[in-house]
Amino acid sequence: MAINLDAALGVHANTLDFRVERSRVLSGNLANAETPGYKARDLDFAQLMDRLDPAAGVTRDYQMAYRNPHQPSADGNTVELGQEQARYSQNAMDFETSLTFLNMNIQGLQKAIEGR
Amino acid sequence: MSFNEIYQIAGSAMNTQSQRLNTVASNLANAEAAASSEETAYRALKPVFQTVYQQTKDGAVSANVQVAGIVQSEAPLEKRYEPDHPMADETGYVVYSNVNSVQEMADMMAATRAFETSADMIARANSMQQSLLKLGAL
Q: Quick check: keyword rRNA-binding in the entry (chain A) (predicted)?
C-alpha cells in the first residue's frame, strides 16, 4: 500500500504556507501604517479553503484583496494599526495551530510505521 | 515560504522610522535656533514616506517602505522683537525656527511605537520560523 504523503498531511501543509504568505502581506501593511495613499491588503482564507484540493499538495493560489477601512483617513491610507496588529498576531497563532496539527499527523504516521 | 521578505519589510520599516527619529532630533535641537534673516532661519525637516512594491520569487508582491525625500516645513517662522540680540536685523527683529516642539514630541512617540511594532514583527516571524524548524520532532 502506497502512502501519498501530500494526502496524508491533509490541508495543513497548505494552510501553513498560507499563514506565512498572509504574515508577509500583513507585515507590509504594518510597515506602511503611515505612508500616505497606501491601501491595506489581505489574503482571503475562506477563498483558499473553498478551492483547496488536499491531494494536490501545496497550491499557492491566494486571492489578494484591498481592505475596506472603518474610518478612512485624509491622506488616503487605509491601514488601521490596532486591527492590523491584532490580525498579525492572530495569524501567527493560527500558524502555530496548523503546525501543531501537522506535527500530530507526522506523529501518527510515525506510530503507523513503527507499528506501536 | 516568504520569511525572508518579512524580515526585509520589517527592516525597511525600522530604517524609515529611525530616519524619521533623526529628523525629529535635528528639529528639537534647532527648535530655538536664531537667525538674522528668513532665508537663513532653520525650517523643520519632515520625511515623506513611500511604498516600494517588490516582486518576490514566486510572483507575489510585498510592500516595503522607504523615505522618498525630506521636505522643509512651510509653517510660518517666528519673529521676535529683540533689539539687543546679536542676530537682530536693522528693525530689531530676530527670526526663530518654525519647529513646533509639541508636534515633534508626538512625532517622536509615533516613530518609537512604529519601530517597536517592526521589532515585534521580526520577533514573531522568528518564533514562527523556529517552531517550523522543530517540525516532526517528538
A: no
